[in-house]
Amino acid sequence: MEHLLTGFELNQDGYVKLIELAQAMKADPKSYRRTLEGMSAALMFEKPSLRTRTTFELAMFNLGGHGVYLDLGKGDLGVRETVPDYARNLSRWVDCLVGRVFKQTTLEELAATGSVPVVNALSDLYHPAQVMADFMTIKEHLGHMDKVKVAYLGDGNNVANSLLVAGAILGAHVTCFCPLNCGPDVQIFTKAQAEAQKYGGSVQVTDDLSTLKDYDVLYTDTWVSMGDDTPLEQVKKRFLPYQINEQLVASSGAKIVMHCLPAHRGYEITDEVMDGPLSVVFDEAENRLHIHMALLATLLNPSAV
Predict the structure, then answer these.
(1) Is the model more confident about 233 or about 270?
(2) Which of the residues 25, 30, 34, 169 has an alpha carbon 20 to 30 A from that of 252?
(3) pTM of the entire predicted model
C-alpha cells in the first residue's frame, strides 16, 4: 500500500492486519514509541476537526514522530499555490501527507505529484480511516467482522460510501437505508458490490425501512455534510423516518449503535440512544487514534510492525 485514498487499496488480509495491529497498539502502546522516530507528517486540513486532527497528531507523537498542522480552511490549497506545488514542496520536508479536504481529486493530485504517502483523512467521497476504526469497534463488541449485518441510516455520504467499501472487503453485510435520491455514490457501490462477491459479503441500498430487521449494528451520520450550508430543519421532514431512536433500535434487534460524530442530537439520533447502553459511539472515537497509529506505521515503516 503506497497511499490510502479510497480503501480499495487493501484486500481483506490488509484490513484484518491493520485492525489487529491497532488492537496491539491499543493494548501496549509503549512498545511502539519509537516506530516513527525522526519522521513527520503534514496534516493538511481544509475542514474543521476535533477527532481527526487530534488523533492524527497524537498518532504521530505516540509513535515517536511529529505532525505539522496546516490550516488550509481559508482556501489556500490550489489558490495560493497549486496542489502539485504543495505536494512537491512538502514531500521534500515530511514523510507523509494527511489530507482532510473538500474534493477527492485534491488527494489524488497530491499522490500523483508528491513523492510520499498520502492518507485520506476525509474527502467528499470517502472516509476510509473512520470506517477502519468502526470495524475495529465492531470486532471489539461483537467478536468478529465477517458476516456482521450493518444498517446505515440517513444520507448516502462519504461515510456511507466507505462503509460499503470496507464492509464488502471484510465480508460483512452492509445495507444503506436512505431516502430516494439520497443514496451512496453509484460507481463506488458497484465497485464495492464486486468486492463483496469476492469475499462472501453483500452490499445493498434501499429506502424501505420495513426491512430493517435482525441487524447487528445500526449506524448513522449527520443528514447534512460538512461544507453544506443547508439548515437541518430544511431536510428534517425527508430524513426524520431514518432517525435512530429507541423504537427503531428495539424493532431492529441491533446489538450496538454507532455514529462517526459530530452528532446532531435530536435529529439523526436521539439522546436516549446515543447515551444508552447499546451506544459505542465514544469507543469508535477512541479507536480512531489506534487505527491512525497502525495506518501511519504500516505506510511509513512497515518493517517495524
Answers:
(1) 270
(2) 169
(3) 0.97
